Amino acid sequence: MSDLCIIDYGMGNVGSVAAALEYLDIPYCVSNSEEEISKSHKLILPGVGAFSAAMENLKKLNLHQILEKEVIENKKPILGICIGMHVFAQSSTEGGLNEGLGWIEGQVTRLEEVDGIKIPHVGWNSVVAQSDSPIFNNFSKDSEKNFYFDHSYHFECDHKLVLGKTAYGRTITSVIQKDNILATQFHPEKSQLNGLRLINNFANYFME
Amino acid sequence: MLKKRIVGTLIIKNGIVVQSFGFNKYLPVGKPEVAIEYLDRWGIDEIVVLDIDASQAKTSPSIEPLKKYFKHCHVPVAIGGGIKSKEDFQSLIRNGADKVVVNSILFTDPETVKWASKTYGSQCIVGSLDVKMVDGKYFVKDRINNQLFEFEKYIKTVEELELGELFITSIDKDGAGKGFDLELIELATKTTRLPVIISGGAGNPSHFSEALQYDLSGVAAANFFHYFEHSVVITKTLLAAKKHSIRMDLRTRYQPEQLSDSGRVAKLDDAALSNLRFVKIEEEVI
């Protein structure tokens, strides 16, 4: 039995998430089968690409129902990354209006071009923690928490759910938590030490 | 605040990393996976791997070594060299490339580039332009057909392909270690609205600092990072000391006063050496 299951739905970089878990010595599996997913303690939904393609792939593999059962009914902790975060929303305007899984009340909309910022938002930017969540364990309090971002759309939701914020033009939501659901706009699997810390915190401290 | 990226470029020839001098002379360095692991541990912000055999020999990019590349790497990696078809984009991205760097295909098959940026998102496609000065004017060079295109006009053409960023290399400065082409940086950042990464000419950390006076998204170097231990950490420390916006949460730290401007650890005087005490710092286990 694996501690962690990386959901393989044909979107993005499963290999990088796996490399991070290997570095951290956390047992994991990569799968899209109901059996493997239901046996794992925690889930990671990675993602690079477009919203509509991500939703389509989830439905094609019947993952929207399998995950709904595990995450909403059984309250299994899940970490959504980038597009994996966006699909938790009710809807997204990327490539026309598309419906999401609707687990978190909120919409995904295009970044606003204010103050001469460039879109996509690519590169390392700092996250300001909004609470003492165990997700930020082992981060030094006085140095910046930089993570790697690469996106043109962002998640708008109730500020009570926001665990981390990032300044880029307007302030964007970089970390969300709703009960057992955790989501990051940045790519922890590509964010070196800080990313490894965050993934480790998710695996060992989140909801434990 | 968004940080300026310090990018490490690895030029691959015959499966090994080489140093390149003016695109025509090469010196061997070592295995790509080892170079990637070092750059990652030294705090690089992004890695660009360019296979120059694939671009010259008209073969497709080799997929097999990619697994080894990503095993010990926790920063984004862009892969380039020899991309010719939709299948090449597909296989690189499926096998872990965070971004694909395109050069010759911009001239030969722009429609496929457009398809790729629609399919995988523009953030995934990096346009690489090799730029040369001829009679006081800048031109983009198409190496395959040995043609030159006027720089500003050409930028407008590639902008229509919905690329995520531009990786601009100065052919004249490449491998010389005498500094980046500042005139080219100024022209490029004024001409395009796309994020620009400049490459070609890094010889010491102050060259990075000069380049970052302009509105660049990142500065890349290849040969320079191979020359000495902790080259990335030392460069970043000196840049941060000059108030550039640089990511500094790294494994290793130096104090700026320990370093000389040329990017080496400064020589201490004898009195300081005799008073030196080593302190053991435990490595952080995550």
Q: Tell me the series of helices and strands of chain A, N- to C-terminal.
A: EHEHEHHEHEEEEEEEEEEH
- At CATH level 2, the architecture of chain B is Alpha-Beta Barrel
- The rounded distance between the terminal residues' Cα atoms of chain B is 26 Å
Summed up, the domain count of chain A is: 1
* Number of separate domains of chain B: 1
Read across the widest sheet of chain B, the strand sequence of neighbours is 1-4-5-6-7-10-11-12
Task: Tell me the number of helical segments of chain A per DSSP (H or I, 4 or more residues long).
Answer: 6
At the fourth level of CATH, the homologous superfamily of chain A is Class I glutamine amidotransferase (GATase) domain
Bin the strand percentage of chain A: 25-35%
CATH class of chain A: Alpha Beta
Mean pLDDT of chain A equals 93
Shape of chain B: globular
Tell me the name of the CATH homologous superfamily of chain B. Answer: Aldolase class I
How confident is the prediction overall: mean pLDDT of chain B?
91
Label this structure with key terms:
heterodimer, A: 208 residues, alpha/beta, Rossmann fold, 4-stranded mixed sheet, 6 helices, 26% helix, 31% strand, B: 286 residues, TIM Barrel, 8-stranded parallel β-barrel, 12 strands
Quick summary:
The complex is a heterodimer of chains A (208) and B (286). With 208 residues, chain A is of the alpha/beta class.
Written overview of the protein:
The complex is a heterodimer of chains A (208) and B (286). With 208 residues, chain A is α/β, with parallel strands linked by helices. Chain A has a single domain (4-204), classed as Class I glutamine amidotransferase (GATase) domain (Rossmann fold), CATH 3.40.50. Helices cover 26% and strands 31% of the residues of chain A. Chain A is globular. The model of chain A has no long low-confidence stretch (mean pLDDT 93). Chain B is α/β, with parallel strands linked by helices and 286 residues long. Chain B has one domain (5-274): TIM Barrel. In chain B, 33% of the residues lie in helices and 24% in strands. Chain B has helices at 32-41, 52-57, 66-71, 86-94, 104-108, 110-120, 151-159, 182-191, 205-211, 223-226, 231-241, 270-274, and strands at residues 5-13, 16-21, 25-30, 46-51, 77-80, 99-102, 125-134, 137-142, 147-150, 165-170, 196-199, 218-221. In chain B, strands 1-4-5-6-7-10-11-12 form an eight-stranded parallel β-barrel, surrounded by four helices. In chain B, a hairpin with a 4-residue loop joins strand 8 and strand 9 (147-150). In chain B, helix 9 (205-211) crosses helix 11 (231-241). The longest helix of chain B is centred in the middle third of the chain and has 11 residues, at 110-120. The radius of gyration of chain B is 19 Å and the shape is globular. Chains A and B meet through helix 1, strand 8, strand 10 and helix 6 of A and helix 3 of B.
